[in-house]
Amino acid sequence: MSWLGAGAADRHPVYNPDGLHNGPSRAYVPCRVMPRGSLLLEASLPDQFNQPLDLIEYERHDRFRRSLHMVLGPNGKLWVAIEAGQALSVLSLDLSTWSKDTPIRISYSWDLSKQHAWLGAEHLETGELKTVTGNCAALYEEDLARVLFAVDQTALARDVHCIAFADHIEPLGYSEGIGAGALVETAIGPQSIETLKTGAEIVTSSGTKTRLLAGIVSYMPAIGSLAPLRVRRPFQNLKQTLDLTPRCEILTEGVDAAYLFGVEHVAVKPMHLVPFLPSANRRLGLMSKRYRLVLEEPQPFRVAGISVCAAGHRHDSATHGLTRLAHLPYDSLPRNDTTATMTLLRHEAVALMSPRYL
After folding, report:
1. 222: closest CA among 140, 290, 153?
2. 223: nearest Cα among 15, 4, 19, 10
3. What is the pTM of this model?
């Protein structure tokens, strides 16, 4: 089970039929049906548009007609239509409640053995998930590679920031996190985040202890906003250099935060810190593994001298089985309390960080 191909606006597409963890390859692309898999892409809801936006437009006639269309309508509806011979799969998802210019991650997964497909969308600012299920049609590895490399006049909209596909079903959501080796403060001392066991007592930002419900591990292509950022010590009192995903939330405090926002501490995202830290650069490599903690009390936890926000669920019970938290009972999951910690938008982070580092 591997990611086979990936590309982004800031990175040329790469492909390997044996998996991207083996590095890029110039091997022949097999024309084979993928019995299961996932197609992932990131885009932004257009600010203003009156016509349907074709995120992907692909058609091919080789013995029979094969096509893949992903369209975002001006009414906020996301459509995916896949045709393979006489088989046709059409799914639609209503995103009309999300504001314009919202960054979103779209995931389409399928399983031919079950004749089932899933279309999901993740609001990358809030983590909210929306899904719909339906019947599926066959997808070919060669066709997805042609979409990735824009072969034969394949249309991939400029609004698509990155795209990737895998030969397995990738769970939805909760892929933000911290790279291996990060030392998390526990009741028995610092421990590497990848070695933590369920039930461990984790030290929170307030100094209290709470139980670890589960650790989430995700292995993703290091492209676009999926690529971790390397933040070096001693920024924000860091005791070690960390690899953080761009939207992982870090707590910061001070009189300037209290003055500007009226709260004791706020959360900032590494993607907003890059302009202020020349040493914060994207981690090299095609793949990256990141870890995230689910705590009994969804409070920020201490890691390497800073505090990082824990995961809280942002999906309903109908979506639960498709997410990275599916192995946990839905009723046991802590709710993501958006009022507990204020997460700064980009312009707010700039206003806070500029006097500190410029």
Report:
1. 290
2. 10
3. 0.89
3-state secondary structure the chain: CCEEEEEECCEEEEECCCCHHHCCCCCCCCCCEECEEEEEEEEECCCCCCCCEEEEEEEEEECEEEEEEEEECCCCEEEEEEEECCEEEEEEEECCCCCCCCEEEEEEEEECCCCEEEEEEEECCCCCEEEEEECCCCEEHHHHHHHHHCCCCCEECCCCCEEEEECCCCCECCCCCECCCCEEEECCEEEEHHHCCCCCEEEECCCCEEEEEEEEEEEEECCHHHCCEEECCCHHHCCCCEEECCCCCEEEECHHHHHHHCCCEEEECHHHHHHHCCCCEECCCCEEEEEEEEECCCCCEEECCEEECCCCECCCCCCHHHECCCCCCHHHCCECCCCCCEECCHHHHHHHHHHHHC
Judge whether 352 and 252 are in contact, CB under 8 Å.
Answer: yes
Question: From CA 184, how far away is CA 205, in angstroms rounded?
Answer: 11
Band (29; pLDDT cuts 50, 70, 90): confident
The 10s digit of each residue's pLDDT in 165-212 is 999 999 999 999 999 999 999 999 999 999 999 999 999 988 999 999
pLDDT at site 336: 67
Nearest of 189, 82, 174, 93 to residue 137 by alpha carbon? 82
Query: In 3D, which of 282, 281, 283, 268 has the Cα closest to residue 356?
Result: 268
Residue 130 confidence (pLDDT) above 90: yes
Residue range 237-251, pLDDT digits in tens: 788 989 999 999 988
pLDDT at residue 48 above 90? no
Integer Cα distance of 220 and 328 in angstroms: 21
Contact 81, 142 (CB under 8 A): no
Segment 301-314, tens digit of pLDDT: 999 988 999 888 88
pLDDT of 146: 92
Q: Do β-strands 64-72 and 77-84 pair in parallel, antiparallel, or remain unpaired?
A: antiparallel
